[in-house]
């Protein structure tokens, strides 16, 4: 028999008639030789397994030697090594909550390459039976699907079973904007308060809370009448309040200011300069448009309490601070502003998000369109 070359695969039949194959894959992590074994009742089956291992070895997709990881082991690796480099810290915190509290207890013990659609379906059923909200179950589904997609791309499993399972359905939460009258009452109640322009920015431009609290004066051009969103204030675990970049390219945007808002910001800047003089050496200049009396950032929780107090003083029903953003979007569409313009002002990445979120405005827009068409054709 001709002697095999170093690293060449071998196939043989044992004394019991079973076929075996050995494939040299290179070296393990610590330098030891990595030689993989496959077996089968028929030679053709073993040959196919050997050829597949050789293909993976040559393509660099064979993976590390040893027992296949569990779903739990892969999810932890995906969180710590892969997702941690791609998503915001706050998003990673949410991912970790879903993995630890929902995914690991239900399917973490399964071998990654043996995970079946039925395992995932049972998990979703158990989570719903435990009264977890449909939105949270859907989030868990998306996290699992993303992690399995990467595992499949790295040839650690043959398919992403999440694509074979119906994603949990979630009804879109109905948007509850303030009426135009209530919005005006809020602005009237804010008049004379410290940082009064904070609420004008929320109701007129629809800035997210972090975008408003992270706004700096160098991003506001009162002469040109524009405001540019470049960053957002965010609380991160272990770091406190930090500035972060917008999630998407659409989030970085320049918005034209209504004339009354431009005047409000001028008055606000004058008041802030007076505060700076009073604070003296205690002033921490971070160039923030909306800040504490010493120049430091406003904590989002304090900002939310101020919003609730403002609604109470305005005798307007309590609403989420994010509903101020919904109010701005609704008023824009009601005033006949094209949906694409509203989309760009709000920083949405897709117009379908704008139209889908504010579909409650569609009936009156349709009525207005019909009225205008009637005037155009019949006078």
How would you summarize the topology of this molecule?
Layout: E1 10-13, E2 19-27, E3 33-40, H1 43-59, H2 71-82, H3 89-107, H4 117-129, H5 134-153, H6 180-190, H7 197-205, H8 209-213, E4 220-221, E5 226-229, E6 232-236, E7 240-244, E8 253-256, H9 259-279, H10 300-313, H11 322-334, H12 339-346, H13 351-357, H14 362-378
Antiparallel strand pairs: 1-2, 2-3, 4-5, 5-8, 6-7
Structure description:
It is a single chain. The termini are far apart. Helix content is 49%, strand content 11%. The mean pLDDT is 90. It has a three-stranded antiparallel β-sheet with strand order 1-2-3, with helices on one face. A three-stranded antiparallel β-sheet has the order 4-5-8, with no helix packed on it. A two-stranded antiparallel ribbon has the order 6-7. The longest helix has 21 residues, at 259-279. It is mainly α. Strand 1 and strand 2 form a beta hairpin.
């Amino acid at each position: 028999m001709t002697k095999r070359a170093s690293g060449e695969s071998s196939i043989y039949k044992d004394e019991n008639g079973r076929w075996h194959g050995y494939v040299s894959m290179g070296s393990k992590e610590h330098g030891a030789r990595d030689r993989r074994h496959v077996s089968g009742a028929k030679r053709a089956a073993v040959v196919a397994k050997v050829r597949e291992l050789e293909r993976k070895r040559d393509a660099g997709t064979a993976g590390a030697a040893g027992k296949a990881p569990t779903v739990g082991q892969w999810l932890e690796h995906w969180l710590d090594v892969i997702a941690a480099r791609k998503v915001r810290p706050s998003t990673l915190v949410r991912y970790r909550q879903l993995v630890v509290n929902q995914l690991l207890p239900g399917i973490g013990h399964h071998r990654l390459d043996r995970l079946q659609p039925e395992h995932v379906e049972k998990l979703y059923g158990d989570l719903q039976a435990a009264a977890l909200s449909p939105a949270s179950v859907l989030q868990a589904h998306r996290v699992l699907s993303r992690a399995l997609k990467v595992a499949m791309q790295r040839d650690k499993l043959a398919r992403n079973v999440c694509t074979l399972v119906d994603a949990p359905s979630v009804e879109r939460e109905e948007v509850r904007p303030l009426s135009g009258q209530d919005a005006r009452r809020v602005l009237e109640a804010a008049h004379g308060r410290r940082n009064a322009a904070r609420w004008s920015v929320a109701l007129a431009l629809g800035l997210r809370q972090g975008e408003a609290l992270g706004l700096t004066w160098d991003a506001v051009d009162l002469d040109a009448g524009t405001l540019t969103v470049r960053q957002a204030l965010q609380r991160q675990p272990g770091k406190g309040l930090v500035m972060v970049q917008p999630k998407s390219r659409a989030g970085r945007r320049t918005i034209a200011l209504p004339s009354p808002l431009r005047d409000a910001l001028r008055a606000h800047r004058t008041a802030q300069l007076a505060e700076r003089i009073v604070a003296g050496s205690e002033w921490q200049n971070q160039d923030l448009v909306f800040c504490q009396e010493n120049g430091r950032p406003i904590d989002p929780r304090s900002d939310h309490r101020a919003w609730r107090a403002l609604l109470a003083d305005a005798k307007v029903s309590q609403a989420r601070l994010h509903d101020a953003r919904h109010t701005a979007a609704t008023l824009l569409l009601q005033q006949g502003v094209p949906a694409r313009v509203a989309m760009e002002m709000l920083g949405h990445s897709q117009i379908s998000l704008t139209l889908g979120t504010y579909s409650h405005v569609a009936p009156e827009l349709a009525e207005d369109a019909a009225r205008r068409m009637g005037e155009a054709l019949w006078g």
